[in-house]
Amino acid sequence: MAEAVADPRRTAIRRGLISNGLTAAAQAIKWLLFSLVFSLVIEWVGMVLWWPEEGIAHSRTMLANEISYLDSDFRRSIVSSDPARFAKRVADSTYHYLFEVTQFTRFIRWVSPPPHPDEQGLRPTLHRIYRPLAEFVIAAMQVTQVFSVRLAILLLATPVFLLFSLVALVDGLVRRDLRRWGGGRESSFVYHYAKKAAIPLVVLTWVVYLALPVSLHPTFIVIPFATLFALAVTVTASTFKKYL
Fold first, then answer.
1. How do residues 25-44 score in pLDDT, each as one tens digit?
2. Residues 137/130, Cβ–Cβ less than 8 Å
3. What is the domain partition of the chain in residue ranges?
4. Pure H helices in 74-112
5. For residues 13 and 19, what is the distance between their CA atoms, to the nearest angstrom?
6. Strand locations in the chain, DSSP E?
7. DSSP annotation string for 152-171
8. Which residues have C-beta within 8 Å of that of residue 210, sequence separation ≥ 6?
9. What are 62-106's pLDDT values in tens digits?
10. What distance lies between CA 218 and its chain's CA centroid?
11. pTM recorded for the entire structure
């Protein structure tokens, strides 16, 4: 008896809205963690090689600069009526849950003081391990706050991408109609590559800005990437197939 040939279409797993949403959330968390770890590594390497004279003051200055950008240039936003307070609240909440709720700050206060000459137990050993790493640990805490402020700034800047993409979509559809009625050529090659480039440009914006080792006004990051994203949307819409 001949063996039945399995229909390959039956092996395909259909992913629903919930699974797609969970997958997207997991990917977002992965890239956020990657950006945080990369920014911490860059800060530590910089403390050793690039700005050893500044030390932990470098990350503290970065935090002050990021907040000053909000105070001076981000007065209003669709996301929040008070962007500066929103960013500070995000940074404070991150610090609270990561370092206070987990008792990490309490551990630092316990292990930091030098032990007495006759003190025995675990604390003297932990103090000897912590003492050469103290500045790196404090810098990591400050960089995490910088990361939180920048994350809040990116959330506040999200409407820029939406506005740019809306204008780009309208422009691309107009170009598509002109190509359709003018007998222009259709290029699926350009369409697919432009479509694939849109989402990575958004991800790259977040990764680059969150992991940036120096203070830079968010306009110099958000606007160029939003423009490239809008260009990808325009090309995608304009090269979409002429007939549905």
1. 888 888 888 888 998 999 89
2. yes
3. 26-238
4. 83-95, 104-111
5. 11
6. none
7. HHHHHHHHHHHHHHHHHHHH
8. 32, 35, 36, 39, 147, 150, 151, 154
9. 888 888 877 776 666 666 667 777 778 888 888 888 888 888 888
10. 12
11. 0.78
